[in-house]
Amino acid sequence: TGPTITVTQAQLNSMIDAQLAEASAKLDAALVPGATAMDAEQAPLGTIVSVEGNNVVVARGGDETKKVALLREHFAATDNGLIALLTNAQIDAAMAQAAAAAPAADGAGQ
Known about the structure:
The chain is α+β, with helices and mostly antiparallel strands.
């Protein structure tokens, strides 16, 4: 026979909810202005500038002129610190795509 699960569905749901709440609390504690974030490959991402609701503004490489806004869900708090769930390359590609789309959007209303 295979493994046996000795908890009820309600107990399992309760344990999962507790783990999710703990992870959310850790993320709330880690996502503060001045905190340093790494990317998904453990490379330096930058410094948290501000957190407003689900929006997190990061100064790339700590440079206030190179800011990027990411969503709260794009971060995780780990034993090694604050980690973005994206790589620098993914963020760079998304920023380049947004910059390329911006001129078209600016001229669309004329």
